[in-house]
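Quick one: structure for this chain?
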Amino acid sequence: MEKYLDKNLPAKERAADLLSQMTLDEKIAQVAGVFAVPGREEEMKRFLRHGIGQVSTLEFRNCESMEEAAQWQRTLQELIMESSEHHIPAVFHMEGLCGAFIQDMTAFPSGVNRGSAFDPELEQRIGEIVSRQEAAFGITQVLAPVLDISRDSRMGRQSEPYGEDPALAAALGTAFTKGIQNTETAGRHPESVAKHFLGFHNSQGGIHGANVDAGDRLLSEIYGKPFQAAIRDARLRGVMPCYCSIGGLPIHASKQYLTGLLRTEMGFDGVVVSDYSAVENVHQVQHVGESKGEAGLRCMKAGMDVELPMPVCYSGEMKEYFEEGKEDTAVLDRAVLRVLEAKFRMGLFENPYALTGEELKKTVHHDGDDEVSRQAAQESLVLLKNNGALPLTGEEKTIAVIGPHAGNARYYFGGYTHLSMVEAVHAAANSMAGVGAGGDTAGIQMERVPGTNVQVDETDEFHEVLKKLHPQCRNLVEVLKAKLPETKILYAAGYPKAGVDTSGFEEALALVREADAVILTLGGKNGSGSVATMGEGVDAADINLPACQDTFIREAKKYGKPLIGVHFDGRPISSDTADELLDAILEAWTPAVFGAEAVVNVLTGDDNPSGKLPLTVARSAGQIPIYYNHPNGSAWHQGASIGFQDYVDMSHTPRYSFGHGLSYTTFLYEDLVLEKKQVNPAEDLKLSLTVQNTGNVSGTEVVQLYLRDEKASMTRPVKELQGFARVELAPGEKKKVVFTVSPSQTAFLDEDMRWKIEKGEIKVQAGSSSEDIRLEDAFEISQDLWIEGRERRFYADVRQEDAKDGI
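Got it. Here's what it folds into:
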């Protein structure tokens, strides 16, 4: 038996043995992917003459059943292995942010929803389900988590990351990675590919894939922190860079970031795969390299291992560089070795094929999977405003429900869900990067929402997508009618998802006049393609509610009825009109299958909202970027001697602060106790506090711990989230929350770009949001200490116990 076929040997040893036997053609094949299309397998064969490294499974979205998807994987894998001289199986990869793009899989709320939940344990369970379900189909590389830091609501992909805070993203992203990578299914060990390395959401103008103006300090301290945490604490095995240029080079071709920062400094030892067509973009879009082959070589030398989704630059011309001795084959061997080692780690050589029949069904569907999605939807709802209109009294005889989202559950699914990807197939124009995006909708024939370039999607063709993928999913009106059978529920769309159209007002206002309470669903359409108002490649200069929706709120207010706003979208609600005139506002984001049920539970008081904003909400795009952990002397902490404390036309302060979220009960914070007031830089510090439910209903409080470096050798943030805990409390109940903090959490890059734990006073703040601080104290770090960045702790450990126990 060949040495590389011995499953008892380490993956690295097996990979080295196989590499030593491979021809140049075989090696080139292993660093490229192929975009699979049903029925075009014969055309694919010209890319598979020596096997292939990876297979894109995006088109699994169109399979009619699980069985069809599984059989297609088996057919493709057989074809690939037969074509490979050493029968090397391909890695099949699939997106995993919100679940698999396969019929009858579990769908999950968007990343921003799960950021609002502040629940790492739940995030790990989601990762485990995604891992198991995709591995059942032979998919062993999951393109998730999304570890971007999002500070710009113009960016159409704001729904994908966990929010703006690096510690929150580090905790949730690490948990998701563990869920993916610690789950063995049918002898396979899937691996995560975290994206989009690095600074993706800091692109100029909030434009997808544009240049990023960010220094190394910002990139390492803020944007790099979640990646570093997942690498160190979860052994992250895959990374996908972003489309952007940083520091004068596309990051796909940047040795400084792909090798220097990612591998040497952060300690990453897995596989770097390209975003779709991003290697080709280096030459075609960013105009780097005299030819595609030269651009590809630059990327590979920088540390880019695999080109996806097709071999454009990692192809014939590149092969000639190595064949003719113009470049050292060690560059290629390094990438191939990483690819092969991953395949051995994944168990692909022993288990290359999707499951079938009953084994497939039993592996995919486990009791409780849907409950995890339901829990994620429920925990993610954020009550932004409430003057007593919520919960509903139960005495309302008639409720008017207005808004397109209330009658169409497709609005509850964000970008990178299976539903949005199938919608994109039917959209008149594609916006998804790397797979033939159009670029301009102006000349495309489609029915538009009046006054916009957004496609109307209230058609049978789009409604059938929901019926096929999630037939059990109910809209808000349906759930309200089922939950309140004695109440008359009236519904009208009233206004569209965008634009200025008021033609539906008369019908809707007639219902408002008749109602005892009014529920207005607000927002746009988070998704993909020309039907979306935000999503991948669908960015916006205006982050506020559509004009038609603001206008309707003003008209409805004239009738004096309680107005409750429920917002569905991937960017947060931002509206002066809504803030001023609505009696309650519930942020729902895109909560997926069980979104309507979760919303109705909150509206009726059957569930007490516990979500907290994972990002700062700007009043308008003119404030962007706005984020809570800004440097001292910035934003609404501008120095008094510098200028006016506000814009001439708007406050410097945000509309809603990071960590904000109301409850139907109240919480009392007491007894902040620090184990000691001075620590050396290498010892931990325990601190505790008690939180009590002082209201009449059960509730969950997200306790937030912030640290502030009072005086430092560099400009530091005004405060930084360093720990959090979801604390469930019955009326009158009190619990103690104990955080274990490491001084290394305060480490920063000094003037010489070395990671420094600095001597000095650290203020401790605990509270219900970044602006609602209830308790304060301080401790002192006794001396300076320089460390490696990967040695830091990224967020505090936390435990809960009976309030009577000691620290």
